[in-house]
Write a structure and sequence with these properties.
Blueprint: E1 43-47, E2 53-56, E3 64-69, H1 73-84, E4 88-92, H2 100-106, E5 110-113, E6 134-138, E7 154-160, H3 168-171, E8 175-178, H4 184-191, H5 193-200, E9 206-211, E10 217-221, H6 225-231
Parallel strand pairs: 3-7, 3-8, 4-5, 4-6, 6-7
Antiparallel strand pairs: 1-2, 1-10, 8-9, 9-10
Length: 241
Amino acid sequence: MSRSTRPARTRGPGMPDLGALPAARWNDDAGPAFGLLPAHAGVHLGTTAAGQPVSLPAPGPGGTRVAVLGESLFGRLFALRLLGVGARVTAATRVPDQWVSLGQAAGDRLVVTDGVGGWPTAPPAPPTVADGPQALMCDLRRAPPAGLAEGPWRTVLHVTRNAPRRSVFWSAAHVVLALDARFADPVARLLGEDAARRTAALAAGEIILFRRGAAAEVLNLDISPGETALLTPGRRLPGQR
């Protein structure tokens, strides 16, 4: 008798013989489709009367146009918070002296200029990549071109006391903010009578945010003492003498 030189099939303890298993076809079509929904992320703005936080959707992978009816101080506040999340900010402003304190704190991540030409100063990128997101804060009388916000990681904000008529930027804004009840008339021109009534009903200290495809949100700005000192020319930071 001769013994076969063919090696015997071996398997671990408790393992089935793979050659004896029946063939099977994988089918996962019966389950529901999987999808991701965008979260309301962004830079913190304030809090509603119910205690819910409200954020502005920036910076983000898509360009954002923010139109603000109010004082230029809001542009500096939003710039400060964008700097805090890694954005590089350009301020196109009529009041460069009011940006001095913020510029001293921000260093080369803030550029103050009198126009929007040449923006962005660096290719926009995600946070922590190269120069990161690019933001333009504008308080000039003329709104910036709407196309400046086209593209990833770009945020463009225009703040004024009266919305420019026939402005493409304002008509295409992703977010509109009214910082006081007295801005109800320009809100009516932009967003209609219902939005104007909501604006006119604002109490002292309240602001209202209108976001595309979402309900309006009434809130109070959250501003820390450190932010107040940094944004107020000549005012000292807490702990300074």
